[in-house]
Amino acid sequence: MIKYLSTLLVLLVLLLPGCKGSGAQGEKLAEVNGEVLYLDAFKASLPEGGFESLSPEQKRRYTEDWVNLTLLAQAAQERKLDQDPGVKERISYAQKKVKANALIAERLRQTQISEDQLFSYFRIHQVDFQQPMLAYRIQRIALPDKLSAENVYQQINQGMDFTQAVRRYSTEDLRAQNGMMGFVEPFSADSLFWKAAEGIPLNEAGLVSKNDLWYVLRYTETQESIHEPSFEDHRAEIKSRILKEKQNEVYLELLREIKSKNKQIYYY
């Protein structure tokens, strides 16, 4: 929970300054009194590949959190709390952190990680990657569009029985089996559903889109996957780990470069 909150706060600090009057175009995710969160702005605020790694439930939760925070910020502005000297200083400090993080992220994007580095990391930390992967027993409801899926999703969250929802709303033949897909493996033809299930708790509903259809899904049981984890399975995670380890190195390197060009630094 603490990790989620810290990630959320960073995300919202990044999103809020650029959403209103930024000239962003494209799909709207939410709007609050004329202040718009665009899909493109949302994607741009995340690290490379970050948006694709979010489950539909996480995307929905971040959007709802943006709406709530925007409402609170607008109410604070109406009370002119943003004019308080202490609040102004905290806003200025937050902006500096966002700019500094953008500089570090830019340098990290330029960092080249070779195949040898990836495989060496895998060998050294092999124990971390030997944990068996899970297969999820997934139940799903096929729906024709996003609006229909969100409507059914809300009904389930409000207490509607999932199997009842399958029988009432699902548009596919799998409805005859109560929407049960069986156990879905991580690298099977249904891996998209596996990835969506990975991002939600047991028996809780999530959303995923595939081949122009939308699905409400949940998993009711897990078991160890028959798939043996390999280097290729963990390639993206290994690269992400190496980049995180390099963040401090990049931070110190940037400071050395910038300080060598800026001599007018005084401490009082």
Give a verbal description of the structure.
- This protein has 268 residues and is of the alpha+beta class.
- Mean pLDDT is 83; it is low at 1-23.
- It folds into 3 domains: 2-86, no CATH class; 115-127 and 230-261, no CATH class; 132-224, Roll (Chitinase A, domain 3), CATH 3.10.50.
- The radius of gyration is 23 Å and the shape is flat.
- The chain is built from 10 helices and 6 strands, in the order αββαααααβααβαββα.
- It is 53% helix and 15% strand.
- α1 (2-19) crosses α4 (56-78) and α5 packs across α10 (235-261).
- The protein has a 4-stranded antiparallel sheet. A two-stranded antiparallel ribbon has the order 1-2.
- The longest helix is centred in the C-terminal third of the chain and has 27 residues, at 235-261.
Features:
268 residues; alpha+beta; two-stranded antiparallel sheet; 15% strand; flat; disordered N terminus
Topology:
Blueprint: H1 2-19, E1 28-32, E2 35-38, H2 39-44, H3 50-53, H4 56-78, H5 85-109, H6 115-124, E3 134-143, H7 146-157, H8 162-169, E4 180-184, H9 191-198, E5 206-210, E6 213-224, H10 235-261
Antiparallel strand pairs: 1-2, 3-4, 3-6, 5-6
In short:
53% of the residues lie in helices and 15% in strands.
Whole-number total of structural domains: 3
The helix content is 40-55%
Tally the helices: what do you get?
A: 10
Q: Name the poorly predicted regions.
A: 1-23
How far the N terminus sits from the C terminus, by CA atoms, comes to 40 Å
CATH class of the largest domain: Alpha Beta
CATH architecture of the largest domain: Roll
Helix/strand-derived category reads alpha+beta
**Strand-and-helix sequence, N→C?**
HEEHHHHHEHHEHEEH
Q: How much of the polypeptide forms β-strand, as a percent range?
A: 15-25%
CATH topology of the largest domain: Chitinase A, domain 3
Shape: flat
Task: Give the biggest sheet.
Answer: 4 strands, antiparallel
What radius of gyration results from the CA coordinates?
23 Å
| Count of extended strands | 6
Can you give the mean pLDDT? 83
**Strand order in the largest sheet:** 4-3-6-5
